[in-house]
Amino acid sequence: MPLLDVRGLTKVFGRLVALSGVDLIIGESEFRGLIGPNGSGKSTLLKCVAGAEIPTEGAICFGGRDVTLDTPTKRARAGISLKFQMTSVLPTLTVYDNVLLAMQARSAIAGLIFSRTRGPLHERIMHTLEQFRLAQHSTERAAALSHGQQQWLEIAMALACKPRLLLLDEPTAGMSLEERRITGELLTALKQRYSLVIVEHDLDFIRSICDRLTVLDQGNMLDCGTVNHIQNSSKVREVYLTRV
User: Fold this and answer.
1) Dihedral through CA 145, CA 77, CA 67, CA 215, nearest 10?
2) Integer Cα distance of 134 and 205 in angstroms
3) Segments of the chain assigned to CATH 3.40.50.300
4) CA distance 176 to 200
5) What's this model's pTM, rounded to 2 decimal places?
6) Most distant CA pair in the chain: distance in Å?
7) What count of other Cβ atoms lies within 10 Å of the Cβ of residue 229?
8) What is the CATH number of domain 1-79+163-244?
9) pLDDT digits (tens, 9 = 90+) for 38-54
């Protein structure tokens, strides 16, 4: 049974058909890349999976259960975590407290009121910060981090509640070449523990970390397969030569 099974997903905004009958099947511990020209529906697909948008037609099953109409909160509790393209860390709080709040998201209200969760979570928080090369910045305000470091912090926050599926929308946008290289290393280290669907325009980056690629074009699924298959696809080459 696949972890994520999206069938015939269609999303219409007025006269705009953002997605038209798209299928997407993701297995456990699979890293899938979503590529395609601007406006092809990649971000809309992620939002539909996470519950930020409700599809016009189609079905979304996660972990064997239909979640098509579930709220984003319910999907998050089921194990779906989405990081949007724009960074949304809390800039005035410390790096440590950003991760703390993300981990406390599923804590009982009583534990939060009486501050019972901070101590037990300390070791997990520091391990997470070390994993994303942020431990030395734990007491700094998030606003003091570089753009790349803020992106790493937000990925760490997205993983704080140990989701089964992580959705990333252009996580390397605005990064330097060195920051992109490090981001690739950080994400590769997550394999075997999480499944990942990532939207990226950097084809070299996405090819280096993903098992399979799905190509969207004007709301339709153009092709899907291994990195080697997509690299040799005449349909994909035509789109990237004429529309990207």
Assistant:
1) 30
2) 22
3) 1-79+163-244
4) 15
5) 0.89
6) 61
7) 13
8) 3.40.50.300
9) 899 999 999 999 999 99
